[in-house]
Amino acid sequence: MTNSGSHTLGQCLLSDSTDLPSESTRIAPVSKKPLRILIAADTFAPDVNGAARFAERLAAGMVARGHEVQIMAPAASSKFGTWTEVHEGQPMVVHRLQSWRWYPHDWLRYALPWFIPRETRRILDTFKPDVVHFQSHINVGRAVTIEAAKRGIRIIGTNHFMPENMLEFTLVPKGLHDRIIKGAWRAARRTFGRAEAVTTPTLRAAQFLERYTGLEGVLAISCGIDAHNYVPSFEPRTENRILFVGRVTGEKQIDVLLQAVALLSADLKVKVEIVGGGDQKRNLQNLSQTLGLSGRVTFTGYVTDAELATAYTRSTVFAMPSIAELQSIATMEAMASGLPIVAANAMALPHLVHDGQNGYLFEPGHAQDLADKLTTVLTATPDDLNALKRESLRLIGAHDINRTLNTFESLYRGEPVIDAVTSAAAAHSGE
């Protein structure tokens, strides 16, 4: 996939050094019988979000290891059917389900639940997978777990979902939100309850899922990242550039970032780059004008992978004001690019941002606190700035994609795994 934009994400425990596995060791050879893996998702490339990006990387990584992977996901347009697609350079069979546009959202498409079971039965009976890995408990995940359970197929489930995020794109009155959220968690409990193993990207997200569903033993497994795709720069900075990457939607709280930028000293001559698309783009453009930031804030929309990597490299600091991140692949990409991070002290972001080490955490929704933390980074001495950058590079080592692939491969085979992919990173912060 080349038009990705906002990506907005077991084995080799890395040492505390910044050294990453060499090019030749990133794809581990398959020493056992290759698996047939069906990845079922309600959102998949070319969709632009963390869940879709994770599923794409996971599928491509498994194909590169010699496994046979097929994808089951809603069609990205009115065209539906089964064909071969190439993702992350790897060919795979993709079953595109007939889908409809969800008009409260600017691009989301979904498959109707009463059409999915028939297609699910066809796919399972022709492909005969060894394991089904579903990425949400909604329409596709619910149907595939019911049918896979009937056939005795091993089921693995990963949660990237928060009901609060879904409600932003519905027409449900706010007075009914609590009831809908409770119903969504009950539905999650039923679907994830069919899985032999349930995962989510971080320890905090695992605890969150257990608390609201009653599930036990949820594994925290990082979405993983290939740090070799990103280029850190330790060249002296000639400008102060703040970067945000992600969906341009309400829960990302980009408005708080813009308000914080308006509070920064004019002497810093800050430029802001917002990479990604979403329904709030026009509102935020209007806000930037109202705040007197015209000419200083650029909304790029979706960009290519190469353009995204360049945006990370040329930036001074990465800002993530979102309050609803179950991991934040964009923040991980920024760390792999050697950027200091200033992020909201909410959900899973404290697993990535260790306050005072590779960046700073600010009080969610508090523009002045965000401005203060950004000022600390933007006025840091070259030595202090480089120390923050080096720590981001060191910490991202715990999220190497090879570890993630190895852990999921063990889960697919029914082998015991050590829940160390994200706990290793948390150990550094004493959590």
UniProtKB/TrEMBL annotation:
Residues 48-227 form the Glycosyltransferase subfamily 4-like N-terminal domain. Coiled coil: none annotated. It comes from the Bacteria. InterPro entries: Glyco_trans_1 (IPR001296), Glyco_trans_4-like_N (IPR028098), Glycosyltransferase_grp1 (IPR050194). This is D-inositol 3-phosphate glycosyltransferase. Keywords: Glycosyltransferase, Transferase. The keyword Transferase applies. Residues 235-381 form the Glycosyl transferase family domain. It holds the Pfam family Glycos_transf_1. Residues 1-24 are annotated as: Disordered. PANTHER family: SULFOQUINOVOSYL TRANSFERASE SQD2.
